[in-house]
Each structure stands twice: as structure tokens, then as C-alpha cells.
Amino acid sequence: MHTSKILLISGAMFAYSSLLQAQEGVYIGGFYESVTTDDKKKDHADYDYIDGGNGPGLELGVLFSPSWGARIEWAEQDYDRASALAQGGKERRLGLDLMYRFTEKNHLYAFAGIKSVTPADGHALANLGLGASLPFASRWSLFAEGAAYQGMRKNLTDYGIKGGIRYQFYTSEVDFIHPHKPIQTVITSTPDLDSDKDGVIDRLDLCPNTPITHLVNEDGCSIVEQFVVSMKINILFFNDSSYIDPIYYPEIKKVADFMVKNPDTAVEIGGHTSTPATEEYNLKLSTARAKAVVEVLTKKFNVNPARIIGKGYGESRLLDLNDNEQAHRTNRRIEATIYAIDARILTR
Questions:
Q1: With 0-12 CB in 10 A as exposed, 13-18 as middle and 19+ as buried, what is 270?
Q2: Cα(first)–Cα(last) distance of the chain, in Å?
Q3: What pTM value is reported for the model?
Q4: Which ranges of the chain would DSSP assign to H, the alpha helix?
Q5: How many H helices and E strands in the chain?
Q6: Which ranges of 207-341 does DSSP label H, i.e. alpha helix?
Q7: What CA–CA distance (Å, rounded) separates 218 from 198?
Q8: 3-class SS at 287?
Q9: What is the DSSP secondary-structure string of 34-68?
Q10: What is the C-alpha separation between 139 and 36, in angstroms, rounded?
């Protein structure tokens, strides 16, 4: 009986404190429970020969954090009796539980506490159990629990299963549990400027004042497409000669002008011969012709020698395979192939 009084006083204080905190984690619930009592109870007058029972109950709980909470529980059980000596009547149970939720959504939780039950003179029980909750509306949820009740003075164990419904005074845990805070959205009335109208706002634009006709990347800079360009010239030589007739200087100047305009270019000067004479001799003659053109580019047109490659191909790359004077004249030539990376801005 002493334990029951302590629990009643503690429960009243808990309920009063919880109600003062209404809207801050407080919930109430109702349930119906079926209890299977220890066999020892049906044989002793101390327990009024009870043999299992069932009945309704109420709970008042409060959450202290996303995981921890506590509740006070009251239940009224209508027990069966195993003896005609039993006084009969409904009995009551009152107790406190500490609750631990495995997730912040309150779906699965464990609880432990102490209860005072009042069959006959009453006795105290320690309990341990598991529960699950299923929300079905903004503040409502269904729940079910299973618990074991262990005698604190005598070795006896009861088991109970219950189902019920809860109502919470709060909408969500983030409304009241620190450090969770609602997110505040700030709306600015002044939009960011895009002065050059390229689709990238000024504070992110790394290339301001881009022409509106240019395609731009995510940094607001013009998109440049790179591609390879090439150029060829032909210079004809007299038979068995590497002398360059000045009439071909304008052709060579085209190469020099292109390289000045495109400083990243390089050129290969390829010398070629016709088929008369041996391959070894023709290779030597074609190399001399290539070097003659290189000399004109460097000395007359001041092209950097590092940008020029002279190479002889002999008779390995004939343009005309016929064995006549016209074919020989065509094959005695210089080819300048220029390779450069040119850039072109893409437009809308």
C-alpha cells in the first residue's frame, strides 16, 4: 500500500507538470489491455485468487527529446477468480514508465517502469516492454504494446498486451525539441542583375560585358571552338637543281604571312623530286630543295627557324606517275603544309 501511495503522488505531480507544458511534447492515450497473471496468484488470498483479466486504461505522456520520454499510466482490470473465497470486483493499476524511441518518427519504442496493482492488499511490479505506433492523421496514431510485469517482493511474472489510440498536442517534434528549429525562407524583393544579358547574373559572371551574340558557358564567358587549319603551296624546280626562282617568293611569302598572323603555327617544308636518277640521289636533292625554302623563310621573311621543319621525300610521293617531261616537271616541287590551332567564337 505504501508503494501505491508513492506512485499516486508521483503520478499526480507528473500529470500536473505535463499539463503545464501542453503543446510541448505532451500526448494522451486510451487503450484496452489483456493480462495473463502468474499461476501463483490464483492460489493465494494475497492476490485475491486472480486468474487473468482485461480492461481499459489511460496514459499521459511527454517527450523530452526526439528519443526519450515518460508517461503515467492508469488501468482498471476486471479479473477472473480461481476460488469462491475471492472478494471479486475490479482492480486497478497505476504506474510510471520511462520510454525510449528508436526513431524520431515514433514507430518503435521500448519502455520500463514501476507499477502498483491493487488486487487484495496490493503489490508492486517492475515492468519492461516494447511498443509500436502507427500515425494515421496529423495528431492521431494507433499503438500496440507487449509487456512483462515482474514482482518486486515475490518471484512472479505477469504478461500483458494492449492496443489503443493516442492524441498528441503538438504537430511535429521539430516544433518543440531543441536543437531542431523550423527553416525560415528569406525572399528578396530585388532580383540579381544580368547587365550583359548573357543569362549569368553579375555576381557570378567572370566575363562581364560579353557581346549578346556570343554563346557563353556557366561563368558567362564566350565559348570558343578550336579547330585545325592547313595550307599548301607548290614550288617547281629545274632539273637536278635546288635553286629557287624569285618568281616563287610570293608563294613563300604566303607561308610567312600566315605564320606571322598565327604565332602558334609550325610548318613542314617537304621537298620532292621526279624519278630520273637513283632513289638515294633524289632523296638528297629533295632535302636540299627543302632547306633552300627554309633559308628563304628565315633570312628573307624573318620566320623563327624553330617553327620550321625541312624534310626531303625524294621520289616517294609522286604527283604524276607518267615518265615524260611534263610529269617530271610536276614532281619537282616543294609542298609546305602548315598546321595551326585556330579559334572561332560560337554565336547564338
A1: buried
A2: 90
A3: 0.46
A4: 2-20, 249-261, 279-295, 325-331
A5: 4, 13
A6: 249-261, 279-295, 325-331
A7: 10
A8: helix
A9: EEE--GGGGG-GGGTTEEEEEEEEEEEEEESSSSE
A10: 32
- What does the chain come to in residues? 348
How far apart are the C-alpha atoms of 234 and 250, rounded to whole Å? 11
141-180 tens-digit pLDDT: 899 999 999 988 888 899 999 999 999 887 655 444 444 4
Please report, to the nearest 10 degrees, the dihedral formed by the alpha carbons of residues 80, 85, 91, 93 taken in order.
Answer: -90
pLDDT tens, 95-104? 999 999 887 6
Helix, coil or strand: residue 265: coil
- Amino acid making up residue 257: D
Give me 294's grid cell. 627554309
Q: Each residue of 242-267: b (16+ CB within 10 Å) or e? A: bebeeebeeebeebbebbeebeebeb
